[in-house]
Design a protein that fits this description.
four-stranded parallel beta sheet; FAD/NAD(P)-binding domain; 425 residues; FAD
Length: 425
């Protein structure tokens, strides 16, 4: 999703440049050429495709690339049909890595009225002045904040009681407050009854606990989930089982129900859809085809939401630990206790540390800070190697950094951090 991150960076710079953050440093009035910005997105994607994929494949003389659509004819054969060729390939092993696509809920009138997704938003030729975002997850919030920063009036509609449901409640609540202060509107615990055209715009009938209300906007962004690209593969002919949504069921070694066929990436039935996780799954699948016995460790896989501040999380949440162990050792350090946050003028956020209540090993790290994605790997490493909160305390961190907040969270288990001076070991 490099295109999305490019748009986020551009929108953040536009928005924050126009606002005074430091005394004596005046804000400026930057301009926006939306078509040119989208042209930059397309150029980035095209360059990444050439440099990171097409050219890379040329370095491997034993790799043949066939453009076309493939489907299984048997457990040992697939047929590839392209515009200028048709070829049947026989093999003992296959890796299915067909990815996923955005999916829309069955809302009356949505298809007829029209909408955009994270795949088609890049085809916009104009900036919508008003935007409804259906879905308060990562993609919905990232694009919602991006368009708000570009000047659109944005309303996020979410069926659940809070945004980013997988995140810690404190993270969701604080992030919502930050986004609301920037002008993003939220309607939670709502249902979209129907969508229709009205006076050249798009209208949504929103059902709340208080009744129905109408929301009229220029454009609708649907960000409610993704569907696997498996429906045209004839997986049944290969003996490959899928779940009720069509995602391929695999074990930790990425083997499907046919032990000679493996799968990796977003077409796999799992909790997280991440580029880095897909790459790891591909490595595990290839290694095991060659006789290895690798497994994917999902417990140390971090995930993130690239809003500002960023959400970054790895490991267990407090609720998960309580459900599993009926006890939890958890501490939260508010971002205003971290010196670097004050220096940056960005003190709204938090870092939460979750420990095994019996061994005091780190089993969860959850952050809502600027650049949280840059240091969440510290939490992943702590979980992977069984570190305790004492190990974090006894590891000297650079001062001043946001990553120091992880150490402060560990120190909060043994002393009140609001009574500590900077750099206290």
């Amino acid at each position: 999703m490099c295109a999305l991150k490019y748009l986020l960076e551009a929108s953040h710079r536009l928005y924050y440049t126009a606002r005074e953050v430091f005394p004596g440093v005046g804000a400026v009035n930057p301009s926006l050429d939306f078509p040119k910005l989208m042209e930059g997105v397309h150029n980035l994607v095209g360059n990444m495709r050439r440099e990171k994929y097409e050219k890379v494949l040329r370095y491997y003389p034993n790799v043949e690339v066939l453009d076309g659509k493939a489907k299984f004819e048997s457990p040992t054969a697939i047929k590839v049909v392209g515009t200028a060729h048709e070829k049947t390939i026989y093999a003992k092993n296959f890796i299915v890595a067909t990815g996923s696509r955005p999916t829309a809920p069955p809302i009356e009138g949505l298809e007829q009225t029209g909408y955009i997704t994270s795949d088609s938003v890049w085809n916009l030729e104009y900036k919508p002045e008003t935007l409804a975002v259906i879905g308060g997850g990562a993609i919905g919030l990232e694009l919602g904040q991006a368009f708000r920063h570009l000047g659109s009036e944005v309303t996020v509609l979410e069926a659940m009681p809070r945004i980013v449901p997988p995140a810690e409640p404190e993270v969701s609540e604080t992030l919502q407050g930050v986004l609301e202060d920037e002008g993003v509107k939220f309607q939670l615990k709502v249902r979209i009854a129907r969508v229709y055209k009205k006076d050249g715009k798009k209208a949504l009938e929103v059902v709340t606990a208080q009744g129905k209300r109408e929301l009229v906007v220029d454009e609708i962004l649907v960000a409610t989930g993704r569907a696997p690209n498996t429906d045209m593969l004839d997986l049944d002919k290969a003996g490959v089982r899928t779940d009720e949504r069509g995602f391929i069921v695999v074990d930790k070694g990425m083997r499907t129900s046919n032990p000679n066929i493996y799968s990796a990436g977003d077409c796999v039935s799992k909790r997280l859809m991440l580029e880095t996780l897909a790459a790891r799954e591909g490595v595990v699948a290839a290694t095991n085809i060659l006789g290895g016995s690798e497994e994917v460790d999902y417990s140390t896989t971090p995930w993130a939401v690239f809003t500002n501040p960023q959400v970054a999380s790895v490991g267990y949440t407090e609720d998960e630990v309580m459900a599993k162990m009926n006890a939890c050792a958890c501490r939260i350090v508010d971002l205003d206790r971290v010196a670097k946050a004050g220096i940056m003028g960005s003190e709204r956020g938090l870092i939460k540390l979750v420990l095994d209540p019996y061994t005091y090993k780190v089993i969860g790290v959850h952050a809502l800070t600027p650049n949280a994605t840059e240091y969440i790997v510290e939490g992943a490493l702590a979980i992977k190697y069984g570190l305790t909160y004492s190990d974090l305390i006894n590891t000297t961190h650079v001062f001043p950094t946001l990553a120091e907040g992880v150490k402060l969270a560990a120190q909060s288990f043994i002393r009140p951090v609001d009574r500590m001076s900077c750099c206290v070991e």
